[in-house]
Amino acid sequence: MRVDPSILVDRREGWVALTLNRPDRLNAFNTDMHARLAEALDAAASDESCRAVLLTGAGRGFCAGQDLSDRMQSDGPVDLGATLEATYNPLIRRIRALRKPVVCAVNGVAAGAGANIAFACDIVVAARSARFIQAFVKIGLVPDSGGTFFLPRLIGDARARTLAMLGEPVGAEQAAAWGLIWKAIDDDRLRAEADALAAHLATQPTEGIALIKEAFNASAGNTLDTQLDLERDLQQRAGRTSDYAEGVRAFMEKRVPRFTGRSS
Question: Helix and strand tally (H, E) in the chain?
């Protein structure tokens, strides 16, 4: 394990665990943590042996969003739009564009940008004690880090608007019932199940999963006809991978497939 001041990078067989590591600040983001996480995600993207990513937090919470103490060090008004453009927006784009599945294990409170970073991941599991809070309204701000995009698509407009305007917490079991996350897990089993999920995904057809991500990322802005055309094109690419050939062979031979994750 390589220990970093703000990110723990734990490389496993075929996948990597990235842990937000500012537990004394509930893993709230500062400039350094943004930079370290960007480096870790870029490294995972370029590492062919890494076929899945797990994102979680150290200590009693997943992420409390922005570390507001950073804001207090400024002599004048902070350009929050510039901050988003430089840090949070690239992070969300990295997670969504990563051609590998990203699992998020929410081990406690996920507030503000912390909640929306979790929702940007592909599969989200949470400890039963976890809470998701759109805390922006409590300091007069708008949900960012994709919050106004993800929330209405995950839980509908009425719930999304209410959560954004009231800033009330949603527990993990309610979040799972609403479809905000994949499922709630007993606290003492969260990390083991999240690790097992990432390890499983690391054995699957990685290029096929990348194409699945590509399809879902595009679907929100596409018409049905456009999406059907995209599915056709992506399926053409998937059908030319060695993993597709291996999947068919394994099916015919009644055995477990041995996917390599390569595009050809």
Answer: 12, 11
Is the Cβ–Cβ distance between 96 and 210 less than 8 Å? no
What is the Cα–Cα distance from 239 to 12, expressed in whole angstroms? 29
Burial of 188 (0-12, 13-18, 19+ CB in 10 A): exposed
b/e map 148-180, b = 16+ CB within 10 Å: bbbbeebbeeebbeebbeebebbebeebbeeeb
CA-closest candidate to residue 80, choices 113, 122, 103, 53: 113
Residue bearing tokens 């989200």:
124
Q: What is the pLDDT of residues 52-70, one digit of tens each?
A: 999 999 999 999 999 998 7
Beta bridge partners of 29: 66
Question: Contact 16/49 with Cβ under 8 angstroms?
Answer: no
- Phi, psi torsion values for 226, nearest 5 degrees: -65, -40
Please, what are the domains in the chain?
A: 2-201 (3.90.226.10), 206-252 (1.10.12)
- Phi/psi of residue 174, nearest 5 degrees: -65, -40
pLDDT at 1 (0 to 100): 45
Distance CA 82, CA 87 (A): 9
Half-sphere exposure of 52 (CA within 13 A, CB side): 25
First CA to last CA across the chain, in angstroms? 31
Using one digit for the tens of pLDDT, what is the confidence trace for 240-258? 999 999 999 999 999 999 9
Strand-strand pairing, 53-57 and 102-106:
parallel
How far is CA 124 from each of CA 21, 101, 143, rounded to the nearest angstrom?
19, 11, 19
